[in-house]
Structure formats: C-alpha cells, structure tokens
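Lab meeting, item 3. Inverse folding demo.
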C-alpha cells in the first residue's frame, strides 16, 4: 500500500514535470534571430538557417545550432561559424564567444566579444577590435556566399551555396 502511494506521487511528479517542460518549449517559439534583437543586436550577426538555440535567461549562457559549419566572405574578411556557437549574452553585449573565427590576412582569429555602442557594432578578437555600422548587419548572410549569392547564381557558380 505504501509503495503504491509513493508510485502515484512519482507519476504525478513526472506528469507535472512533463507538462511544465512542454509549456517551456511552446513558450520558446522565438528564433535565435529574434533573441538577438531582444538583446539589442541586429539579426545579421548570425548567418541564415540556424536550426535552434538554447538560452539560460538567468546567466545569459547561450548556444546557437546550425546543421553544419558555415563559411563565407564579406568584403576582405572570411568568417567561419562552427555548427555550434556558444557564449554569454546580455543587453548589447555578447562575450565568452566560442565557435566564430575571422581570417585577417593569413591568421584565423577567434571573435571573443561583440558589443553594440549606439549605431556601431564592435568585434573583438582579444588583441584588437574593429567597429562596423549596425546597418551592415540588418540582413543575415548565407553560408557559402555571404551577401553575393545572386551574383554567384547569375554566373552559374552555385556549388558553394
């Protein structure tokens, strides 16, 4: 009799846990791009086709997931995103970033922090940083071709898309 009571309490606990986790999943319908914008960043900091994310709203720890690693060139910079990007997010600041690198001349450097100051986005690789206008990140680049996908399609080179 005592074991049946414990079992029924355990079943009620599991059902409560299951229904609360389902409601958390349903409440989490924002895309990773929406979350970026909630924290003051433009969506174009992430390439297109993120497949999901996790976010601890108390600590700001996050992860963004892609099907595979992603690489593209914008102007003279080649960027590489691993299939999982992690870090900490707070209003106008992404830090402890892992999974995003930029090629500067012949060196691949980790982007470790991104911050927004008014209309400027500051990218830090630890030893140096560079500012770019927020208007450069209003749209998300596409893996393989960045923002030049249409010109690649017009020229018949779609292999990298």
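The presenter then showed the designed sequence:
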């Amino acid at each position: 009799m005592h074991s049946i009571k414990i079992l029924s309490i355990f079943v009620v606990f599991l059902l409560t846990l299951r229904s609360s986790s389902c409601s958390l999943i349903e409440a989490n319908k924002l895309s990773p791009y929406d979350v970026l914008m909630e924290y003051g960043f433009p969506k174009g900091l992430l390439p297109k086709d993120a497949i999901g994310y996790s976010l601890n709203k108390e600590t700001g720890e996050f992860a963004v997931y892609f099907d595979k690693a992603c690489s593209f060139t914008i102007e003279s910079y080649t960027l590489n995103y691993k299939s999982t990007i992690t870090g900490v997010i707070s209003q106008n600041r992404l830090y402890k970033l892992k999974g995003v690198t930029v090629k500067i001349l012949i060196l691949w450097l980790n982007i470790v922090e991104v911050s927004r100051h008014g209309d400027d986005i500051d990218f830090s690789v630890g030893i140096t940083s560079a500012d770019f206008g927020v208007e450069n990140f209003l749209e998300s680049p596409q893996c393989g071709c960045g923002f030049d996908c249409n010109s690649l399609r017009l020229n018949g080179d779609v292999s990298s898309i």
